[in-house]
Design a protein that fits this description.
Elements (H helix, E strand, L loop, with lengths): L11 E2 L2 E5 L3 E5 L5 E8 L2 E2 L1 E6 L5 E8 L2 E9 L5 E8 L2 E9 L5 E8 L4 E7 L5 E8 L2 E2 L1 E6 L5 E8 L2 E2 L1 E6 L5 E8 L2 E2 L1 E6 L5 E8 L2 E2 L1 E6 L5 E8 L2 E2 L2 H12 L4 H5 L4 H11 L1 H7 L3 E6 L2 E6 L8 E7 L6 E6 L6 H8 L14
Helix pairs in contact: 1-3
């Protein structure tokens, strides 16, 4: 590709000489080599558009029709080797697309299902080992995505819905041990996040609600010893007095009536969950609403102006120990309450075959 003669009236923009003509937008490198040539029709890109390096190597070749991508779009390395290739129809990707490493090996391939606007993209390491599988819908991440280390050990598994993170994401160390479990709901942290040391020992548990830390955050050292428990309410760390209550619950010298006396509703409910419903039930007066053998549905009127707590008191068939599970106030019988904890319809709960 030859150089052009620069004239005094020509001007440089952002490090390149740009000339706009009636039928094309043309740009030149400072050394005079053609940088890009984009044909125009009625002021919009139309036809085969190209761009080159300072040494004259073709880097971009893409087809437009009346301002929209329509046809092939090809990218190249400085060496001239193919970098990627994709076909467009009326401005949207259509069909499969490919990416290559400079050595010619396939780097990625995206397979599109035209009727559903869905696609599956696979990626490979330079040696040909599978690196990732991802799903898309309307150009946004959708469904399951999996990434592997070069050793083929799984590195991460994630899920998306409508382009937003959803469900439980998991990340692993290269030795196969879990590194993180991250719960998402509509793109925000929601649920218990867990982290582990590379040895496999637990490192931290962090409860989230609607993107904010809410509940008791726990941290351990690499030997498994508890370092610190911290209480958070809607992203704000609680006072030292409330954290002292948490420490007393953990030590076993806190009482149910003390929870009732706490004024902050959110803190009260967090401490109640830490205290445990079984202990709470054992220390307070309660009303038995329904009974089936040794299992009971009970109500605790624990605080004036506060909704009563409804619990299913259940005997474990294997250990013989009793435990309590909170149930919604809408349940009317103990069988229905137990079925609700198992997330099955009440008429399908059969205690005679419970295991």
């Amino acid at each position: 590709m030859s150089q052009i003669e620069l004239r005094g009236e020509d001007r440089f923009l952002d490090g390149r000489l740009c000339l706009r003509k009636d039928k094309a937008v043309v740009g030149y490198h400072k050394n005079g080599f053609l940088h890009f040539n984009y044909p125009l029709k009625n002021g919009e890109f139309h036809g085969i558009c190209q761009a080159w390096s300072e040494t004259g190597v073709l880097l971009v070749e893409e087809e437009y029709f009346e301002g929209k991508h329509h046809g092939w779009k090809r990218l190249f390395y400085d060496s001239g080797e193919h970098s990627s290739e994709e076909f467009f129809r009326n401005g949207l990707p259509d069909g499969n697309s490919l990416e290559w490493y400079e050595n010619g090996r396939v780097k990625a391939e995206e397979t599109r299902i035209r009727s559903s606007h869905e696609s599956m993209k696979q990626e490979w390491y330079e040696d040909g080992t599978l690196k990732a599988k991802r799903q898309f819908k309307d150009g946004k991440p959708s469904g399951k995505a999996v990434v592997w280390y070069p050793t083929s050990q799984i590195e991460s598994q994630s899920f998306y819905r409508n382009g937003m993170a959803e469900g439980l994401w998991q990340v692993w160390y290269e030795n196969g041990n879990l590194r993180h479990e991250i719960p998402y709901s509509r793109g925000r942290y929601h649920g218990m996040m867990r982290k582990w040391y590379e040895s496999g020992k637990i490192w931290a548990q962090i409860p989230y609600r609607d993107g904010l830390v809410h509940g008791v955050q726990r941290v351990w050292d690499a030997e498994g010893k508890s370092i610190k428990d911290s209480l958070f309410v809607r992203g704000v760390r609680a006072s030292k007095d409330l954290e002292f209550c948490l420490a007393r619950i953990k030590a076993g010298n806190f009482r149910a009536k003390e929870i009732i006396g706490i004024m902050n509703t959110s803190v009260r409910r967090i401490l109640l969950e830490e205290f445990g419903y079984s202990r709470f039930l054992a220390e307070l007066d309660h009303t038995v609403l329904d009974k089936d053998g040794e299992n009971e549905l009970v109500r605790i009127d624990w605080r004036r102006g506060e909704e009563p707590i409804f619990l299913a008191k259940v005997k474990c068939p294997s250990t013989g120990a009793f435990y309590a599970l909170r149930v919604p106030p809408s349940v009317t019988g103990v069988k229905q309450a137990i079925a609700w904890t198992f997330q099955i319809p009440g008429d399908q709960y059969q205690p005679d075959i419970e295991t």
